[in-house]
Amino acid sequence: MTSSTTSSNSSTLPEQPSLTPLEVWGGIECTIVRIQDKFRNQSEETGHSRRPDDLDAIAKLGIRTLRYPVLWETISPEHPDECDWSWHDERMERMRRLGIAPIAGLVHHGSGPHYTSLIDPKFPEMLAVHAERVARRYPWVKLFTPVNEPLTTARFSGLYGHWFPHGRSQETMLKALYYECLGVLLSMRAIRRVIPDAKLVQTEDMGKTFSLPRLQHQADYENERRWLSFDLLCGRIVPGHAWYQGFLDAGIGKEKLAVFIDEPCVPDIIGINHYVTSERFLDNRARDYPSVFHTSEVPYVDVHATRVPHAHGLLGPEARLREVWERYRLPMAITEAHLGGTRDDQLRWLNQMWQAAQNLRAEGADIRALTVWSLFGCVDWNTLLTQEHGFYESGVFDVRGGTIRPTALAKAVEGLAGEGRFDHPVLDGHGWWHRPDRFFTPPTKPIVMPALVESPRKLVITGGRGTLGRALARVCEQRGMAHDLLTRDEMDIADQASVEAALSRHRPWAVVNAAGYVRVADAARESDRCFRENSAGAEMLARACAHLGIPYVTFSSDLVFDGSLGRAYVESDAVSPLCVYGSSKAEAEKRVLEAFPDALVVRTSAFFGPWDRYNFVYAVLRDLSAGRTVHASDALHVSPTYVPDLANATIDLLIDRAGGIWHLANQGMVSWYEFAERVARQAGIDASSLVKIDDSGRGITALTSERGLILPSFTSAIERYMHENTMAWNDGPEDREAA
Question: In the annotation, is 581 catalytic?
């Protein structure tokens, strides 16, 4: 829409509560979805169902309105007349005491308990019975979402076959949608018999489809379809509507559609759930896209529009929210704002959603709130819950430890709820959906996003010539984070004057110390140098960062342990180094945390990566592929750690301002011999020249965590190494010498 159109329309808009600030709501990923005969419950998988204290943590953020499950499947799972309210009674009363107003969700991507389904004609009336029971049980609740995202659920359950009843036709989709929306209408009637002023907060994903000209007809079809939930509830599907005949063809007669025409169930608040993946692009040139997007079902690819240059400039939450406002002119809220990925991008997405809502409010749109979704994260949504991999996306809190851990998003939510704003240095960079490397195929003309600030705030990384330092810099580059990678010539970390001068010159918002002495075998002979670089240097930087009040992270090693415990070590286990190198790291930990108690100390183990040749995996594959003998211990057990995983997790924790000792290693424990055998097998290399050494050295220095297992499995790491590694393992002698 042009600016002139915006201006002319805004002068005639109905008065809206523009003087009230944009509210911050919260939401818990609570999907209960049925796949074949199995139900998945996200409240259980994220652990929220076992943690009533979660509600206190939410209240501390300043959130006073919360999308919360009062789901049919959990209250009457076996029989429609058998209800168990115990779990909900405790939590609803707790919310009431905390001053949190729930938006009660009754069905969330599900199809009801096992005795019904989305295409059961009795579904609407049965849901209405549940709705009235909820209203009578909790008459103080004013906000309801009887069915979350009816069209999205109908598509995934009735058209694509992902969820029960696994339909694959437009007819099944439209029947499911009709019964869902009729369930909303009947539920709100039943609720309002008990709570006359109850309000309907109706949610839906409102993405948009773009395409090349040859597929414009399909894009038009999908773009008309996206309005069906709201059009049906608002009584707009009348003769002449683009989808009126489609409903009739699906067996939904005129008299059934007349129910909504005669008595619409107009939402009191239209809730828009918008994701980076909500906008799609259709392209008949399948060869230009990764094979994962090729299907036999349709002769074109359907990909995220953010990945396609043709859609540049047409995307984003602001454009989609404006379309909804212009179509319905009803009060609105963003009811899901979530991004899975790195912490910096999560903060950037939240900031973009907030700014989109504020910009539209300035134009006159009645947007009431932004809902920070997935407060406790979600599990396996990267496969739409159809596969059980335990793939976890953290939210405002990370639940992978013994207790929930606030992430940087928690501070952002507190700022938005309290002052209407938040800031973080990572906001100086663009999210991945705006960066030029996001495209599957390069654009014909380079697309350059303007800088967000003239001088982005930077972090400093030491160890500029080392494996870890270069890897951290590479990851920062990939994540759009401004940084300075310093060598010893630019900052000697064990020299106070050098440290102070460098930090004064670079003025970082945080420091990552990847410098240090790394030659374990030579440490006893060069102990003074080892302790200077590993202990004194780490402490020197810690003191400087403490004085400046900026985050600081340094790295330690599994060699602070002697391996005699008989199990993998956790953070609270006492250190017991056997070698000089391990002693230097143990001393560094002690001195750093004394100098700066809020510093982050990352212990890691046996790291390997795709960006250099100085690691065990590369050496094993190189030598085995050349037929050379490789000796490896079967007595010493470690936790191999994939450098990209280590670097990304470290930066996430740094952004979160996590402190203390953390163990970061890929999950799993293997001997060095097993390690070599696994990588050879994964690479398809003959391992007959691999020789097992049964020595009597240390037993287990593997690492696990009591604070949170935030790195993927060792198996996943090896698979990704093989996929991402571009180096040849059989380089000629000259190349190996040069390396």
Answer: yes
